[in-house]
Amino acid sequence: MSSLLQNNLFQRVAVAIAGIPLLLWINKAGGIPFLTLVILLSLVATYEFRRLAAHRAHPPSLLMLLPLTAFIQANFYFRFIDYWEALLAVVMVIYVAELWRTQGSQFLNIGTTLVGMVYVNLAFGALLRLRLTDAGDGAALVLLLLVCVWSADIFAYFGGRRFGGRMIPRKLFPRLSPKKTWEGYFSGIVGSVAVSWGCSAWVPGFPDGNAPLIGLLIGVVSPAGDLMESMFKRDAGVKDSSGIIPGHGGVLDRFDTVMFVAPLIYFLVTWW
Predict the structure, then answer these.
(1) N or C: which end of the chain has fewer CB within 10 A?
(2) What is the pLDDT of residue 117?
(3) How many domains does the chain divide into?
(4) Rounded-to-integer distance, Cα 32 and Cα 223, Å
(5) Does the pLDDT at position 269 exceed 90?
(6) Mean per-residue pLDDT for 165-175?
(7) How many C-beta neighbours within 10 Å does residue 230 have?
(8) DSSP code of 272?
(9) What pTM, to 2 d.p., does this model score?
(10) Which residues of 14-46 are buried (b: 16+ CB within 10 A; e: fewer)?
(11) What is the rounded end-to-end Cα distance, in angstroms, of the chain?
(12) pLDDT at 208
């Protein structure tokens, strides 16, 4: 193993050792600590998405986008106004601000900005609302989401390395992720379901009957979050959204699956 790969692996492990316990503690604490985490992640993700969009358009300054992001997330928690009204206000600000800007195409500027603001803020907003849900134990639901996403990722990685291409030669989605295999995909599903079942059986507060169903859903759809992020990065021509998390890239790189899955789980537990 090269020194570069060893250093990258060391960084990934060090971040996981330090970050996972902190993340679990914040999830258990809930309230303002969890809101603070979500706002921080949203702000970094907004910065990263603007960085990607700047390769194709001329999005507005961070001096406008970051306060709008913080406002949306704070409104998901405190509900100053209805959620749709907050999004409407942000959309109108972005529209009007473009009147005074002369760089690039207004269609591309507004379009890329809205995609980033909606993608980032609705995803992390769903995670925040899931933690605050009345439809069960919010802390347990967020924990279930996290462990299933992590398990699907780990099982897919090792399953793909061990069995990839042996049974199904065709790649899962070669246009966006040439290394993903069907064997890895199915291994991820197995891992997510197995861990969700184990959590429901042994961890207090987990949704006993629905945990394996949630695990199955996460295992099935989890690659979509990674593929969406790969789509944006390939279009921008970059490898990582940023380097803010050593060994992992950026928030969009590390939380892409969580961002995609959180709205689905929120809908499932709210309307089931």
Answers:
(1) N
(2) 96
(3) 1
(4) 31
(5) no
(6) 85
(7) 19
(8) -
(9) 0.92
(10) eeeeeeeeebeebbeeeeeebbebbbebbbbbb
(11) 48
(12) 63
Higher per-residue pLDDT: 209 or 24: 24
| Mean pLDDT across the chain | 89
> Mean pLDDT across the stretch 144-155?
93
At residue 212, the pLDDT reads: 86
For helices 31-53 and 62-78, the axis angle rounded to 10 degrees is 150
Q: Considering just the CA atoms, what is the radius of gyration of the chain in Å? A: 19
Buried b (16+ CB within 10 A) or exposed e, 158-172: ebbeebbeeeeeebb
Q: Strands 177-181 and 171-173, how do they pair?
A: antiparallel
**Mean pLDDT confidence for 48-71:** 96
**DSSP class of 105:** -
Asked if pLDDT for residue 123 goes beyond 60, the answer is yes
**Which whole-number Å values give the CA distances from 17 to 79, 120, 135, 157, in the listed order?**
35, 26, 31, 19
For 231, the domain range is 3-271
Residue 108: count other Cβ atoms within 10 Å of its Cβ.
Answer: 14
Distance CA 247, CA 229 (A): 17
DSSP string, 153-196: HHHHHHHHHHHTTTS--SEEETTTEEEEEHHHHHHHHHHHHHHH
Q: At residue 78, what are phi and psi to the nearest 5 degrees?
A: -90, -20
